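stage 2 :: seqdesign
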């Protein structure tokens, strides 16, 4: 659990600390690849969700803190992306590459390709968007969480059961 916080939150903080002066000088873009789990808590993923919520809060705070200096901050709330990292990075996974309780029934065909994700991020930087949710499921999950949070909680619980 500490590794998740170290990687997702402190990794973002440390990289940003070193690049921030240059980004401010050039009015550049800071992109954080977060997760829908950074906006909506996921069952059986409390440490992961917490690390992504922290990352989201850090990046959102930086955006507001440096708004007059021209810094562009894009937070990407990605959904499932079809990559080999997912399969090789998680130990004790089932045949689909997910640990028990992680929604392992997600099919590769329902995931966004790495290329599509990269294209969304490129356009997010190009048009200086503040947030990006490239998947339909991600958009619906966040919308439901804002409009009907109790229903969203039940749906997430059922999906990740």
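stage 2 :: out
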């Amino acid at each position: 659990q500490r590794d998740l916080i170290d990687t997702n939150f402190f990794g973002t903080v440390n990289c940003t600390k070193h690049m921030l002066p240059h980004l401010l000088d050039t009015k550049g873009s800071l992109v954080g690849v977060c997760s829908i789990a950074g906006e909506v808590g996921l069952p059986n993923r409390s440490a992961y969700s917490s690390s992504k919520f922290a990352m989201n809060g850090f990046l959102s705070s930086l955006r507001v803190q440096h708004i007059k200096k021209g810094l562009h901050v894009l937070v990407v709330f990605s959904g499932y992306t079809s990559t080999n990292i997912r399969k090789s990075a998680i130990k004790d996974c089932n045949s689909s590459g997910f640990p028990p309780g992680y929604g392992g029934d997600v099919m590769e065909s329902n995931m966004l390709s790495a290329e599509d994700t990269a294209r969304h991020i490129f356009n997010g930087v190009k048009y200086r968007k503040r947030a990006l949710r490239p998947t339909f499921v991600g958009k619906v999950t966040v919308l439901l969480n804002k409009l009907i949070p109790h229903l969203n909680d039940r749906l997430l619980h059922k999906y990740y059961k």
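stage 3 :: structure notes
- The longest strand covers residues 29-33.
- The domain at 2-159 is CATH 3.40.50.720 (Rossmann fold).
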